[in-house]
Design brief:
The complex is a heterodimer of chains A (564) and B (282).
Chain A (H helix, E strand, L loop, with lengths): L9 H10 L3 E2 H17 L1 H6 L10 H18 L5 H15 L2 H18 L4 E2 L1 H17 L9 H17 L5 H22 L1 H6 L4 H17 L11 E3 L5 H4 L9 E9 L5 H11 E9 L2 E8 L6 H7 L2 E10 H5 L21 E7 L2 H8 L5 E4 L8 H9 L5 E5 L6 H10 L3 E4 L5 H8 L8 H10 L5 E7 L4 E3 L2 E3 L4 E5 L2 E6 L2 H11 L7 E6 L5 H14 L4 E6 L5 E7 L1
Chain B lengths: L7 E6 L6 H6 L2 E4 L2 E4 L2 E4 L6 H7 L8 E3 L3 H13 L4 E6 L7 H9 L6 E5 L4 H16 L4 H12 L2 E7 L2 H7 L16 E7 L2 E8 L2 H12 L5 E8 L3 H11 L8 E4 L2 H7 L4 E7 L2
Parallel strand pairs in B: 1-2, 1-6, 6-7, 11-12
Antiparallel strand pairs in B: 3-4, 3-5, 8-9, 8-13, 9-10, 11-13
Helix pairs in contact in B: 3-4, 5-6
Classes of the chains: A alpha/beta (564), B alpha/beta (282).
Amino acid sequence: MSKPYKDIDPELRARLLEGAQEIDGATLSQLLFASLDWLRTNQQLVNSLNVFPIPDGDTGTNMVLTMQSAVDEINNISERSVGDVASAIAQGALMGARGNSGVILSQIWRGFAHVLENEEIMTAESFVSSLKEASKTAYKGVVRPVEGTILTVSKDISTEAQKALDGGITSTLELLERVVEAADDSVERTPDLLPVLKDAGVVDSGGKGLFFILEGMLRAAYRLPLDQPILSVQPLSLLDLDRAAESIEPGQDWEVIIDFSPEELLDLGPFYTKLEEIGTSIQVGEGDGMYRMHIHVQDEKEYEPIDYIKGLGTITNIAIENLMVQTAKPEQAHSLSDIRLQSIEPGEIAVVAVAPGMGLARVFASLGVTALIEGGQTMNPSTQEIMNAFENLPTDQVVILPNNKNIILAAQQATELTVKKVAVIPTVSVPQGIAAMFAWNSDGNFEATASAMAAALDSIQSAAITTATRSVEIDDVKVETGQVIGLLNGKLTCSGTSIEEVLIDILKEASTDKYEIITLYYGEDLNAMQANQLADIIRETYPKLEIEVHDGTQPHYQLILSIE
Amino acid sequence: MTIKTSRFAIVTDSTADVPIDTAESLNISVIPAVLTLDGETYVDGLDISRAEFYERMPDLRIPPTTAVPSVLVFEETYQRLFENGVERILSIHLSANLSGMFNTAEQAALNFDEQVKVFDSGQLTLGTGFQVIEAAQSIVNGLEFDQVVNTAKRFRERAYVLALIDRLEFMRRSGRVKWLRANIGDFLQIKQLVEVKDGLVNAVARTRTYTKAFEQLISIASTWKNIKRLAVLHSGAPEKAKELTERVVNLCPNPLMIVNITTVIGIHVGPGCVGLAVLTQD
């Protein structure tokens, strides 16, 4: 990987190092703003480092939102000692933590801030101690720490920082240099420590995110730009265009995607500069001499990228989508607030459920859920959002169903922030959450109810069908981008060319003939007729089973299945 | 009709599901409840057979409703018994929390000073019926009125009903149970186990499938000790009742009763339910 700060003018570097023996509160704030900017610039890249070829676990997005919350908190304080700023970062990250990586990141900041608590400035020594405490706190926050993740990176940078200090480094900036290099190396080693990463051909996404956070600080110190990704070209298969279209801001009226082969070697610097003049949300992918360019542009500018790229080579494909129409879809008419929820009395046991999709939210409501949090696959709720859901209930006994493995940690963190009695039922899928609801009793004994709900998870099997976002081989299942894939109990189980084929395969794998009822929740990409046709196929194969079909409206997953 | 020779009499209503021959042999007077189907009024168990009711129920355009017999019906029943030489009456009815039957009986009883004691069984169907039978038996055994009341009281603590509700929509529509508000059961098929205890219908467990609920019902029943009387209840589901009977027949030393439950409760639980009424002893 290129390290642009290594090319820095030695004289400038020496001057900067000399001037950065210590860091005060204002500087730490500036560094954190830079972290956020740089992480955001590389957000899609971090998102694409996904072990499973499925559209979930947006680590980059989760870490950006967690850092955003930290930055917001800095802006809220008037005191500016390094201790004050660090505490604000820790507090903001804690409340804004989303996803497992966000929660671990917030723990890192917590440990970091703990050491600096009463400090006016940060010295090289206290920097090293902070990093050490940061790593320690992060490890403690996880029940079963896994190496080859952001945890390992936090440990490696702390070790390297200590070494650098012992070697006589006194400038915090020079320490930061070493820390960033250590982070980079550590991230590259993650596939050696965690086989799933190696199988998937990626490095750990959380570790990579932490690297960008640190590198952003260093780039700011060296006055390097923070708005242009270094690794500007990703393999085509990593380009996650679908998702980019989800966060549309004003001035992003059209989405233009152009496939082209340049006549000459593409000079990325000027290419990016030109594209940035035209629009935003720029992404470029490369594969086999082909490039794919993605951009959002204002109305009446939709043909500019085409005119420009025409001059660079041969265009093979153009896709233009009107985002104004897309955002104007009447989706607002179906918000969570339209759903009638069970009321709850003080002293009763309330249930908070995270639901990806309106249909699934309605199903949860029909089982007596008291509060719903939107989110799941693409948008993980923050610790703050979860905590607010607890606080808004009129009872002080609450059970939460995260329904996603990437939300469990944030839910646990939220339980530590409320005085209410909260049990986290570790549901990793929607069907598990629904199974848990069948064991819920609002008038029951709290501990007994929580353990009955947790025990109910074993009574069912969960399956999901989606489209592979890239080619990979995991657990002996070979998957090509765009293929239909089936997951059984969270494990990649089969792949195929049609939903029907994968559906039958996965039911076979689940020993479905030993069960009684299959519930199909169809996603927003399917309609009721298609779902019923799929149900008919199951009926033919398993005539003795009951089949129920419901509109789940979940994104990304054409089908979520419960077999019980 | 046999000539009443006892000084005391038991009155109940048709929702107690006391079999006709048992009622006759123990001199129990049964006041029939009333229901309305598609605009027409029927007397429970007389104008319409229970089998016919459950068969028609799913096709009714207007949800059927129930009505408590008038105060007058109770007064006439009490009056007739007194004219036949009865001195005191114990009038046992279904849970006052769930029906107006108890209050209507109380109003009628006001006209007879202290001679009529109206008793809230806190139960439904044979949960009430078992108390009625035990009280009537104690009269036959020659107990004094206070002792007859005490018998009913003692068995009120020992009567229990556990049932498997096949479709929640009927119970939800009835509005009788607090925990079944809002949109519960709108989407997923839910099989609900309920109990009748202390005059209320409580949720016991929810499952996705009939088989699971059925097995849970049996596993709860198998924990019951010292069973004196046991009845298999069903709402127009003789096959399911037969299956349940086979599984629980050995739990009780006395002959098992199999009862197609009163239409008045059937309206609130819908067809296809099975359950058990049990009476235990010390």
